[in-house]
Structures are given as C-alpha cells and as structure tokens.
Amino acid sequence: xxxxxxxxxxxxxxxxxxxxxxxxxxxxxxxxxxxxxxxxxxxxxxxxxxxxxxxxxxxxxxxxxxxxxxxxxxxxxxxxxxxxxxxxxxxxxxxxxxxxxxxxxxxxxxxxxxxxxxxxxxxxxxxxxxxxxxxxxxxxxxxxxxxxxxxxxxxxxxxxxxxxxxxxxxxxxxx
Length: 175
Prior knowledge:
With 175 residues, this protein is mostly helical. The chain is built from eight helices and no strands.
C-alpha cells in the first residue's frame, strides 16, 4: 500500500508525539527533579506535586494520541491475506502496545511512591515554609528525599515505553 496524505500525517503524529512524551518524561527526571531536590523537604514535596499534576494532565492525551495513531496505522497496513498482518502492521501494533504499557506501569508500579509523595505534599501544605527552611525540613524519620529518588528511578525507566514506540514506529514507516 502506498502512503496517502492521511497515513503520512498519522505517522508524523505518532512519531512526534511518542518522542515528545519520552522527552517530557525524561525532562521530569533530569531537568526538574535536580532543582526540586535543592529545596527543603516541605517545599520540595509541594514542587514535586506541581510537576506530578502537570504530568498527569498532559501525558494521558499524548499517550492516547500516540496509541490511536499507531493502532490506526496497524489497521491500515493489516494485510488480511497474511496471518500476522505483515511487518508494517506488526511494528505498528508493537508501537501501540509499547505506548499503552506506560499506563499500567504508572498506575501499578509507581502508585505507592506517588501516593506517599502526594501525602508529603499535603502535609507540607500545613507547614510554614519559613519553618521548613529554618529547620532544613529534615526530621529523623522524614523519607521525602528517598521517595523522590525512587520516583526519579521509576520515572526515568518509564520513558522506555514511548521511546520504544517511537523506534518501532520509525522502523514501520521505513519498511
């Protein structure tokens, strides 16, 4: 099948949005979090929550756009004469599934860390920032830094899903 303008646009959307999603996930870990970790714990928890809420608002639409783009392309390139649909179809199915995998990873594996950090931010809402700075926000049993470092690890790994989707989509477009 030759590419139509619709297929070309959908390929561009899938590839661009998957790369943008991977980049935004990595930016949270490598650009935002190092600065957030410079703040006292209560302030850092509030800043992390802001980052988290922005990600929770923007990542799902990108995930849906990428998944639907690659699923549509898998459908378009599905050769019903072939049992498995042909190589383009298989790559696009893999790209759609790779993108979609970010959802259970986030909801299942990151849930505990996210929930604890959300609670830390809620507790921080009750703390006067000046008090936090004066005491450097470090209590003997405060695990805010450890939770944030865990989040960075989980989040960094999470970029593999849209990055894999982008790679599979690129290969499919080239086959």
